[in-house]
Structure formats: C-alpha cells, structure tokens
Amino acid sequence: MDAQQRTFTNMKVFYFLAYFSFGGLFPLLSVYFQNEIELSGSQIGMITSIGPIVMLLTQPVWGLLSDYTKRPRLLLTIAVIGTGSVGFTYLLAEEYVILVAIAAGLAMFQSAIIPLSDSMAMNYVYKNGGDYGNIRMWGAVGFALAVWFMGMLSDWLGQGIIFYGFALVLFISAYFSLGMPKESVTAKVDIRGGMKELVKVPGFLLFLIVTFLVFGPIMANNFYFGLLIQFSGGSLAGVGFAFLLAAGSEVPFMRWAGQWIRKRGILVILFVAALASGIRWIFYSTGPTPEFIYMTTIIQGFSIGLFVPAALQYVTELAPKEVKATAVAIYSAVGNGLGAWFFSISAGLIMEWSSILSVYLFYGIFTLSGAALTLWMIRSKKAESSNGLAIAEPKLKEH
C-alpha cells in the first residue's frame, strides 16, 4: 500500500470511529437521563440544547487556531481526546448543573472534530483526486452501526456502557487523527459583510427560514427518537435497530440525490424531502407501535439523504462567489445551531407539559410549514420567471 492509499484508508477509519462514537452516545443520552438520572423534560431539553449553541460559538475559535498554528492534526487529536474525556465524566455526575457543564465542555471540544477533519479531507481530495463522499460515507456507516451495537450492549450490560464506548472509541480515533493529511484550508468568513450581499440574493433569506423549520427538527430528533421508541414500548436494542435502519437508509439516497436534483430541480427535491419529513413526524405523534416506527425509518433516509445535499448545493450555487463560504457558514449556523437549539429545548418543555407524542406533533407542524414555504418559492419562481423577478434557482453543474 503506497502513501496515498494509506492516507485514504486512514481517513476512512477516522471518520468511521469518530461517527461511531457519536452514534453510540447521543441517540441514547436522553434515554439515560430519563431512566437513570430521572431528569425532567425541561432539564433534558436544556442539556441537549446547550451543545449546538456552544459549538456555534467555539467552531470559529478552532478555525483561527488552525490557521495560526498550521497544525490541524495536533488540534484534531487534542479535540478527540478532550471530547472522549469530558464525555466519560457523564458517568460520574448526577447533579443537573454539573451535567449542563459537562454538555457545554463536551461541545467545546467536539465542535472542532468535524470542521477540521472535513477541511483536511476535502483539501487532500482536491489536490490528489478521489471522492470526498466515499470517505465521508464511512462516518454514516459508523454512526448507524454504533447505535445498534451500543443499544444491544445497553440492554445486556446497563446504560452506563455508552460512556465507556464513547471514550474508548474516540481514544482509538486519536491514533488515526495523527495520520490525517497535514494541510487544511479554513475558508475565510465575513458574516457582517457577507450578509449584506446575501440579503440581496432572491430566495436566500427565505431558504434560511426553511432550513430552520425543516433541519432543526431533524437535528433534535437525534436526541428524542430513543425516547419515542421507549414510550411506544420498544427496548434499548430496539432504539439501536431503528437508528441503524434510519441512518443506514441515508446512504443510497445521498448517492441518488445529484441525479434527481438535475432531473427535477433543487427546490422540488427540497420540497419533497421536507414534506416527507413532516409527514413522518405527524405519524409519530399518533403513537404508533415500535414495529410501525421501524418500518417508517426509511423516510429518514429519503428526507435527510435528499435534503442535506440539495440544501448545501442550493446555498453554494445560489450565493455569489466571493461570499460562498459565508453563505455556507450562515446556513450551517441556522440549521445545526439555532434550529437544533430551539427544537431541542422546546421538546424538553413540551415533554414536561404533555408527552413525547406532542413533541413530534410540534415538529410536524413546523416542518410542514417549511415544506409549504418551499412550495411557495417554487410557485413564485414559475409565476415570475417571465419578468426575471423570480426567486432564483441556481443552474446546476454536471458533477
């Protein structure tokens, strides 16, 4: 195996292990808080929502450190060891305030892992050829297998096992982080100046609202899906099995997304994905049995597998060249940051007032609102295309 093959293999292993650690902890964390610590819904909501905000604030700091030190591999190694170490301390804490502090500390280190590794991987692929998607795909595989595997182990050995697994796998990934490519490129982002340009782009602000309404519930679902399955009568192994089906089904749809986008158009694909996601949440609010939940998890593959690549392509090709990096940063902040925070903390409050079924009704209403707004964008584009005032849809490039 030559040096280039070793680097590609190393990157795939790192992504597999990093996402395996995430998949083995976060989908089962809310279940642990409810069953073992007996936290209230609002307390669970606060703990699960603190991460997106901390990550939003600390990611730029890691980027500046990478630019200043020119040692992204070292920073990545520090980040994975720090994430594993802080995450393990969940097992030693029961006080609510301490759990919130742990969640914030974990997010501070975790916020560096994906941006740094993505930057190194994409820069390497750009210089040496290859397919970033084939590298990143191993992360999806690791996440899906982890929830299934750790769910079974939790049934056999107790829920505390998820923290041992999380720390151990991240410590192993630290070895492979040292073998990541040496160089990374951090895109320069000017939020204030870039936003002045982006507000002039037809459809950009509307799409940020769509992202908030559709992607926010998708991100928050990672924390509350396990509680839904347990509420319906499923086991921890069942939680893992459901996530295996859901996350695993994303891979083929992500592969087909490009072809479908070129054939139908980005906005149409975004509308269909948002509609499917909203219908899924409404169905879950009716209190289905675990078997019906398992059967419908493929909708996650359809909705996320299409929405994520379509949304990213829409943003990058809609934005002017000089503010593309800013557009992607704002899009990510709205969906992964503000959206995940709002729908996580709201879910906790709703659980305390009502039940997990009401959480998914809430998700469904907001997501279908996002789908309706996307449909309005499509109709506006068609109605006004003749006079050039329509909401823009970027011309797609053949990839």
From TrEMBL:
The family database entries (SUPFAM superfamilies) matched by this protein are listed as:
MFS general substrate transporter
Grouped into one coarse class, the protein's main location is membrane
Task: Write down the superkingdom of origin.
Answer: Bacteria
Question: In Gene Ontology terms, what is one molecular function of this protein?
Answer: cytidine transmembrane transporter activity
Subcellular location per UniProt equals: Cell membrane
Protein name per its UniProtKB record = MFS transporter
The keyword Membrane appears for this protein: yes
All copies of domain Major facilitator superfamily (MFS) profile, residue ranges: 7-382
Keywords attached to this entry: Cell membrane, Membrane, Transmembrane, Transmembrane helix, Transport
Q: Which residues form the signal peptide?
A: none
Q: Per the UniProt record, which residue ranges are transmembrane?
A: 12-32, 44-62, 74-92, 98-116, 137-154, 160-178, 198-218, 224-245, 266-286, 292-316, 328-351, 357-378
InterPro entries in the record:
MFS_assoc_dom, MFS_dom, MFS_trans_sf, Sugar_transporter_CS
